[in-house]
Design brief:
Helix content is 72%, strand content 3%. It has 506 residues and is mainly α. The protein has two domains: 1-165 and 224-258, no CATH class; 282-506, no CATH class. It has a two-stranded antiparallel sheet. Helix 3 runs antiparallel to helix 10 (238-264), helix 6 crosses helix 9 (229-235) and helix 16 runs antiparallel to helix 18 (410-440).
């Protein structure tokens, strides 16, 4: 039954290639039908993989000691579910939006092939396999950033490529340099470093451990390799911005998690200077990302700076090396994927309808686009961490994990919750004014308008509603409602992630 692992990888790739080569699929109707089939089918093909344990499939071998293979463990299944579901919902949202962008056949082909590569990434069984899919993901998603072909989009795509390749190169360098110190390249809970070989070389090994963490962190927007996010997100079409933030950054998170728990090992990292340095970098990114989002007036760029901050919440949880922090990190993976996709897709709907990108120009937009802004509001509350939204429970576990962390200076254990709280306040500062101005400012107030004869009963006409089509609203509603439901009933997820933390040696 191991071939089941290959189906969610190959299925969207094959259909994506068909979109590229078949002239008949240049027409919108068959292309849309095939794309929906690929998105929904990929999610469905994950189900048999989720129901079986220990599936392993060797794709090919580079040498006797370097097999390229897939393996379905619990960590990979969690990320595969999140990525496939959010990717599919964002894809359904994109049909109406991309009709205005053009070049749809190329976009959906790359979109589907990227989905297959992401599934391969989630189920990679070794650091070598993971690296191959990681690089392929970058090359396939770069054209999505450059989709419009405008000068700024091309520049943004190249910047995304440079940062991504630099990060991946740090990982590859670490793999080569540390190869004499590992027992295998396969991901193994607890790590694969050989204590006898590492003895006497700890400082050297730790240096390259940090470089590898920063390399994967580049894709997650970790300081100082975060600069591509606020450039790439505004340049890309809004559906692409949504998955860049909600999904592609999680590939970097998955890389960090695999590295810490299945390659380097918790026992080796805990209480080292790398443990302290990585935690400090995550907190620095959390705070500076929020602060820069507060100062930014471009809507999508503000959301991009927000992603810099919010994804580092997840990295911070991982850096605590505690079960509570780990549970909080995985909860925030789901939370951020749902709410940030909602925010970017809402921003795309606003831009599509009004062509306004400056948050200062959005007064009254809530009365014109009530459903879109309603979803934006729910997502904003979730990102701030207001109960019962999912952001509250994830941040609660992150704070608890910080206080329970050991092996780092004492001030870091309490600085974590302080930074998280400060970031939450900043998040409210850069999101809630958009909501309040959207619903309570702009347009005409009923009490403010009278005719020339002072007729107090002659009120100004109501603001005309002009929301986006139903096909764009449904994906927004699905993600917004799900973020609240999972926040109100997190028990099953917290139990699953707690069990997973034990398996990974926390």
């Amino acid at each position: 039954m191991s071939f089941l692992l290959l189906l969610p990888v190959l299925f969207p790739v094959v259909i994506g290639l068909l979109l590229l080569i078949l002239p008949a699929l240049d027409k919108r109707a068959p292309r849309t039908a095939l794309t929906v089939l690929a998105l929904v089918g990929t999610v469905a093909l994950l189900i048999p993989v989720l129901l079986r344990d220990g599936l392993t499939l060797t794709l090919f071998t580079l040498s006797d000691s370097l097999p390229v293979f897939l393996h379905a463990d619990t960590l990979g299944k969690v990320f595969a579910c999140v990525m496939a579901f959010v990717w599919a919902v964002a894809g359904l949202y994109s049909f109406h939006y991309m009709a205005h962008e053009g070049k749809e056949q190329r976009y959906y082909a790359l979109y589907l092939i990227s989905l297959g590569v992401l599934m391969g990434l989630c189920f990679s069984g070794s650091i070598i396999t993971f690296y191959m899919f990681f690089e392929a993901m970058t090359l396939l998603t770069m054209p999505m950033v450059m989709h419009s072909g405008k000068k700024e989009s091309v520049a943004a795509g190249l910047k995304y490529l440079i940062y991504s390749v630099l990060g991946a190169s740090l990982v590859l360098l670490g793999v080569f340099v540390l190869s004499p110190y590992v027992s295998t390249f396969s991901f193994t809970p607890g790590g694969v470093l050989d204590a006898a070989k590492v003895a006497g070389h700890e400082g050297f090994v730790l240096t390259f451990c940090l470089l590898m963490l920063m390399g994967f962190g580049a894709k997650a927007g970790l300081f100082p390799l975060h600069g591509w996010l606020p450039t790439a997100h505004p340049a890309a079409p809004s559906p692409a911005s949504a998955v860049l933030s909600g999904v592609i950054t999680k590939a970097g998170v998955l890389g960090v998690a695999r590295l810490m728990f299945c390659y380097l090992g918790v026992d080796f990292l805990r209480s080292t200077w790398v443990h302290t340095a990585f935690m400090c970098l995550t907190l620095l990114t959390v705070f500076t990302g929020s602060l820069l989002a507060l100062r930014e007036h471009h809507l999508k760029r503000r959301l991009a700076w927000s992603s810099v901050s919010q994804v580092s919440y997840i990295l911070f949880g991982l850096s605590t090396l505690t079960p509570l922090g780990f549970v909080g990190a995985l909860l925030h993976v789901i939370c951020h994927s749902l709410v940030k996709d909602t925010l970017f897709m809402s921003a795309g709907a606003i831009i599509l309808k009004t062509e306004k990108t400056d948050v200062r120009d959005l007064e009254g937009i809530g009365r014109k686009m009530p459903v879109t802004m309603g979803c934006f509001t729910i997502a904003s509350l979730g990102l701030i961490g207001i109960p019962p939204c999912m952001g509250f429970i994830s941040k609660w576990y992150l704070a608890q994990g910080s206080l329970a962390s050991a092996g780092v200076p004492t001030f870091l254990t309490w600085l974590g919750p302080v930074v998280l709280l400060a970031s939450a306040l900043l998040t409210a500062g850069y999101l809630m004014p958009i909501v309040s101005n959207g619903f309570f400012k702009g347009g005409h107030d009923a009490h403010a308008s009278h005719d020339a004869h002072g007729d107090a009963d002659h009120a100004a006409p109501a603001v005309q509603r002009d929301d986006v089509p139903f096909s764009m609203l449904v994906p927004l509603l699905i993600l917004a409602v799900l973020s609240v439901l999972l926040g109100a009933f997190p028990g099953a997820l917290t139990e699953l992630f707690t069990q997973l933390s034990v398996l990974l040696g926390l």
